[in-house]
User: Which sequence fits this backbone?
């Protein structure tokens, strides 16, 4: 018993030191947000700077379009999340439960999309969006975000469905359910942890993305949070105080989501197997 | 906000890269203009310099883009070659143009392409009046004053105040010392002249300021120079007109003065001076020109220029304004004007890009002490010649296009023949699997549209000659671009670095993730708090945290070195100055960013292991290590392997972190991985075809790697 107390002590010690190390860069961002005079760096180690001020936070909410950006980002992210969940849960189910021609091809294709370097899609995607007239519209950006989040989500859903025994649907079918009912009433509720993960990933893909948004949205009224954040910055002069404050505010919803969903996060992210 | 909105005949959009205070002034002018002209609506849109350039190019080729584009005059070079802006001398009368300072009219090939409202963008000497009364006139005085003002106030062996600071690692900030020794970047016929005695002397001068006179910090980028001056810990600073106002705001009583005279040559250290102004998109229809002209005349009017000058300390371009008492009396503006007169105009040709890219690596290598100034000058010249050739490269092929279509046709035909059996059975089994297709199709359509279509587009681009010369009239030329990728020696060293980057990152992600998961899976009170806190690196936007990390790696003020020297009694490490350490710094940052994902995955896997297995092992008296080896690892392996595969793929292509922490590959372009290298080397010089081929190569490498990885793990899986 004594031994395990000692072990626990060392575990705590390690965890505390490690966590402090992990949090330090985050605290640094907090420190920047409190600094007057837009200084990204400081020559001292302290977290609370001299003349600390919450001016940046006040400025953010009163003088800038911050609330508008929050609204735009929330709207876009939610739509992406819903479409992502609907499309991934169905596609993943088809890949998990059926043996059809083109299944192997689809599975391979989905993994392959993850291997495209960003530099490869940037230019063609932009040219395509111009030709489709999707510039400057929510519709354009929602399609792009959904499709970039989908491959991982489909893969992840398929993996989770694989862990649910086939016999459940068979039983449901014997009881008179249609195929769709069996999916909808029996399997989907069981896959809740994976659905939560899919939702979280789709949400995050849309919430913090910058490069594509900068190409598609060219009307300041449509700006999302990352675009708004970047507008505090210009060549060689940046409003670091606002930038840091906004970054922290932006991450709060994500952190809350993580905390609320952490139970599901652990059980839902199984990724299945690579067997395909 | 519907799709495919047609442009409104009375709406004008301006793209610019102005900083925040400039934007506010512009907006006030625009509001006034719209008050006078109710029917016209003008909107401004900020874009970062590089995005503005690439975004405008692509939009304009697509027949779209803003009516007006505002920026520094060097963007005229590429825009003019690509024919995406209109000549202005056909729109404005000669009489009107005579009102402007000659430097404000940006000509190229005999035509006017840009009309400027501001002159400057120039570096000057900024000094803290509380620390020195009169600024140095010559380089000797600069060193003398600098030595007097470089102080170790508390005698701890560390400098508390520097005589001089500036972003001396960036070539733009070095130019004054090249010109001060009589050098320049081009000769009259635009051949690079980087291998000169002036270059060698200039490089030596900077190195001596740091190593011999010790009046500048050992390591300084833009942000650290900025903060030292703002905190009153530097007496003098070299920075441009964009920055001055922020020093006043930080409570520094500052003055500016022209950069010193170099005694050896009798020449002034001359910064580059450039105008900033408006160009008109070539896609603008003639009927819209009259309102655009009206707007430009309004924005460039003497009254508005004077107001701008008063609010922003920028130097106007209308000659009428120069006699205004405000301009004549203002100390800052007068000194600024003096510096502009000493300055040299920034060349507007697109070759300037190649010059910067050629100077940076060797310049930083001199600062890092790996090569001498003489060798650096030779290398810069060599690189510049090569890069200019790449920029101008002009390959066309008449027959390649036909061959391409023939091969593509044959390929499709063979594919149809080979897959005809599959097609038939697809039709036969379709009804049976209708449900599956119905479920899968929506996702496939969305992914196909946004991911696969661009992929095929990219394949075609990789076989083409799309570049600066052939931006809208590009054609298929065959495998030239691929040959170029493989004949570049840098490709192989960057490739090896990428491999090292990928595997070291993933290794630490997994080890840390699994170790933490094992600890957090025990029954510890309060483990939920740790789990939540440890997820944070995943949740915060990467952009700002990566920059914070860069700050933490600073040699003198970064927290990592402070902890090393103060608490761990270790020597300080020059993280960002030498290639190896810089690469290590980037890896460290990415390990921090990536371990939470693996930790969560491992936690999930651990929780699915039945507790009875451990109980059984306990009964048999198995030790901790034995249980780990024979129960835990084999059971979490099936979950970890796909996560590792994904981790490898994601890390291999991770552009952001490398880019931000190493400041686009510094020092000397030695911290690149393949994606960041292609991003810089190809897009910077508008080599779109080459970039497409390079991206294809990256993709194929990754594909081969993943296939062999998946095969291998499957082989080991069957053992268990």
Assistant:
């Amino acid at each position: 018993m004594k031994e395990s107390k000692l072990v626990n002590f060392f575990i705590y010690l390690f965890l505390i030191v490690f966590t402090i190390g992990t949090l330090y860069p985050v605290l640094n961002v907090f420190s920047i947000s409190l600094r007057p005079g837009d200084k990204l760096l400081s020559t001292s180690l302290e977290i609370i700077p001299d003349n600390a001020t919450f001016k940046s936070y006040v400025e953010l909410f009163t003088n800038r379009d911050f609330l508008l950006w929050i609204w735009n980002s929330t709207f876009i992210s939610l739509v992406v999340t819903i479409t992502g969940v609907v499309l991934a849960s169905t596609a993943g189910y088809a890949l998990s439960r059926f043996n059809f021609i083109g299944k192997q091809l689809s599975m391979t294709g989905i993994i392959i999309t993850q291997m495209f370097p960003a530099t490869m899609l940037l230019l063609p995607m932009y040219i395509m969006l111009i030709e489709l007239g999707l510039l400057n519209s929510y519709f354009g950006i929602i399609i792009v975000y959904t499709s970039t989040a989908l491959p991982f989500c489909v893969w992840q859903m398929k993996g989770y469905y694989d862990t649910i025994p086939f016999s459940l649907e068979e039983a449901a079918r014997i009881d008179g359910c249609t195929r769709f009912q069996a999916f909808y009433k029996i399997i989907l509720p069981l896959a809740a942890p994976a659905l939560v993960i899919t939702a979280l990933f789709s949400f995050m893909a849309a919430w913090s993305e910058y490069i594509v948004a900068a190409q598609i949205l060219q009307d300041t009224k449509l700006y999302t949070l990352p675009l708004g954040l970047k507008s505090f910055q210009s060549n060689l002069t940046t409003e670091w105080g606002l930038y840091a404050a906004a970054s922290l505010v932006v991450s709060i919803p994500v952190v809350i989501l993580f905390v609320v969903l952490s139970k599901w996060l652990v059980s839902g992210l199984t990724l299945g197997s690579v067997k395909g | 906000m519907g799709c495919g909105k047609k442009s409104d005949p009375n709406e004008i959009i301006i793209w610019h890269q102005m900083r925040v205070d400039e934007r506010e002034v512009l907006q006030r002018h625009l509001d006034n203009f719209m008050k006078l002209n109710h029917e016209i609506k003008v909107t401004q849109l900020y874009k970062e310099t590089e995005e503005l350039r690439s975004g405008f190019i692509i939009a304009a080729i697509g027949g779209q883009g803003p009516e007006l584009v505002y920026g520094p005059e060097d963007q005229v070079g590429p825009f003019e070659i690509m024919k995406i802006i209109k000549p202005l001398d056909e729109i404005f009368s000669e009489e009107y143009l005579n009102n402007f300072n000659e430097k404000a009219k940006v000509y190229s090939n005999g035509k006017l392409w840009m009309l400027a409202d501001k002159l400057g963008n120039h570096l000057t000497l900024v000094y803290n009046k509380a620390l020195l009364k009169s600024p140095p006139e010559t380089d000797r005085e600069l060193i003398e004053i600098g030595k007097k003002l470089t102080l170790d106030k508390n005698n701890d062996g560390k400098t508390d105040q520097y005589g001089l600071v500036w972003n001396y690692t960036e070539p733009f900030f070095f130019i004054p010392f090249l010109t001060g020794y009589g050098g320049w970047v081009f000769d009259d016929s635009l051949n690079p002249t980087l291998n000169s005695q002036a270059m060698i002397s200039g490089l030596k001068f900077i190195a001596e300021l740091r190593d011999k006179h010790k009046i500048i910090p050992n390591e300084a980028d833009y942000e650290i120079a900025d903060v030292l001056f703002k905190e009153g810990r530097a007496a003098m600073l070299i920075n441009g007109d964009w920055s001055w106002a922020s020093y006043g705001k930080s409570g520094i009583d500052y003055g500016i003065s022209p950069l010193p005279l170099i005694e050896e040559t009798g020449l002034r250290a001359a910064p580059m001076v450039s105008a900033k102004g408006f160009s008109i998109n070539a896609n603008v229809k003639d009927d819209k020109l009259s309102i655009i002209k009206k707007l430009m005349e309004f924005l460039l009017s003497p009254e508005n220029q004077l107001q701008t000058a008063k609010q922003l300390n920028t130097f106007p371009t209308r000659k009428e304004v120069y006699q205004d008492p405000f301009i004549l009396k203002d100390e800052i503006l007068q000194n600024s004007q003096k510096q502009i007169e000493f300055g040299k105009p920034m060349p507007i040709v697109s070759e300037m890009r190649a010059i910067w890219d050629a100077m940076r690596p060797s310049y930083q290598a001199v600062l890092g002490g790996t090569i001498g100034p003489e060798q650096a000058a030779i290398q810069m010249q060599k690189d510049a010649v090569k890069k200019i050739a790449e920029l101008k490269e002009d390959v066309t092929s008449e027959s390649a296009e036909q061959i391409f279509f023939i091969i593509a046709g044959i390929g499709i035909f063979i594919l149809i023949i080979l897959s005809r059996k599959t097609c038939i059975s697809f039709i036969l089994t379709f009804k049976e699997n209708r449900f599956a297709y119905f479920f899968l199709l929506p996702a496939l359509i969305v992914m196909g549209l946004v991911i696969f279509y661009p992929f095929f587009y990219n394949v075609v681009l990789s076989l083409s000659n799309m570049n600066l010369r052939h931006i809208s009239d590009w054609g298929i030329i065959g495998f030239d671009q691929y040959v170029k990728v493989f004949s570049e020696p840098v490709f192989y060293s960057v490739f090896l670095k990428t491999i090292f980057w990928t595997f070291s990152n993933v290794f630490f992600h997994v080890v840390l993730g699994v170790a933490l998961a094992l600890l957090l899976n025990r029954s510890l009170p309060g483990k939920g708090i740790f789990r939540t806190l440890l997820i944070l690196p995943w949740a915060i936007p990467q952009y700002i945290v990566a920059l914070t990390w860069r700050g933490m790696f600073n040699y003198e003020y970064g927290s990592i070195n402070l902890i090393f020297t103060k608490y761990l009694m270790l020597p300080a490490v020059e993280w960002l100055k030498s290639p190896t350490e810089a690469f290590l710094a980037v890896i460290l940052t990415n390990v921090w960013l990536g371990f939470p994902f693996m930790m969560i995955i491992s936690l999930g896997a651990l929780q699915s292991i039945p507790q009875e297995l451990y109980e059984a092992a306990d009964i048999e008296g198995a030790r901790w290590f034995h249980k780990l080896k024979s129960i835990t690892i084999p059971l979490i392996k099936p979950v970890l392997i796909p996560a590792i595969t994904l981790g490898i793929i994601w890390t291999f292509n991770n552009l952001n972190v490398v880019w931000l922490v190493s400041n686009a590959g510094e020092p000397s372009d030695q911290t690149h991985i393949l994606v960041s290298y292609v991003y810089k080397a190809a897009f910077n010089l508008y080599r779109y075809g080459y970039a497409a081929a390079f991206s294809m190569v990256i993709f194929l490498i990754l594909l081969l790697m993943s296939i062999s990885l998946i095969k291998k793990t499957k082989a080991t899986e069957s053992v268990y």
Notes: DSSP finds 29 helices and 13 strands in chain B. Residues 1-5 of chain B have pLDDT under 50 and may be disordered. Residues 126 and 403 of chain B are 62 Å apart (CA to CA). The first strand of chain B starts at residue 11 and ends at 16.
